[in-house]
Amino acid sequence: MDWNKTKTIFIFVFAILNVFLYSLYLNRYNEAKDVEVLGETSIEERLQGDNIRYDSIPENTTKEKYVSGNIRVYEKDELKPIENQKFEVIDKSKLVSTFDKPVPLENIEDTTNVRKFVDENVFDGSSYELFNIDVKEKTATFFQTINSRQIFFNQNALLTIYWNEENEVYKYEQTGFEELEDNFDQTETLLPDERAVEVLYQRSLLKPNSTITMISLGYSTLVQLTETQVFAPTWRVRVELQDGTKEDYFVNAVEGKIIEFNKESEEPQEE
What we know:
This protein is an alpha+beta fold. It is built from four helices and 17 strands. The strands form three sheets. Strands 1, 3, 11, 13, 14, 15, 16 and 17 form an eight-stranded mixed β-sheet that branches. The N and C termini lie far apart (59 Å).
């Protein structure tokens, strides 16, 4: 064996390895410096750098309790009759009402008109708040409220109204909770709504040239049992993109985790 040649090869290999390790060290060092600089930059400055506008008025709620409720059971013989409507109860927990004569709804995209219709025609309609109007699908979705705050995407707290081609409402479906109470002893300190925005920004969910148009506090399902469920305070952040598209994001207001709803099962998944 030619030891001189072997030694030369080893020296060459170790030299290359040292260069590689040094370059790796420099990359890690620069990354750490970048993180340090990013940490020193306020969320407002970072949003401004990506031209993300913040038009929403901050909500100053700092403390809330978890809330629990029982799935409502509809007894057909206990429902107070409403003129022009026929009730059907499905699996005891869903109420379906069909109008004998469809009710005209003028200017379907006007939330005031939709709100008025629900207040005047829907069983216990005042317990629900509008979430979305889908003109293409001819539906409007409402979520049940707790202390005037919506329960987001829970299949047992939904009101959906349907209209036809003539903009006449012909039926609605609803589910709900009863005995909704914030009866937990401990009051939780909430993350500021600005922190929810920062969480979304750090996960690259807020796109450049967009506008945060609304931040509101509601609830999402934390514990789901057979009949009783527990709800956690949750920030809803609505963002309007440059092309006018609107997106909603949800962040657990206690733990700071992003919540992604499975719209088919309407069960939340935390990241």
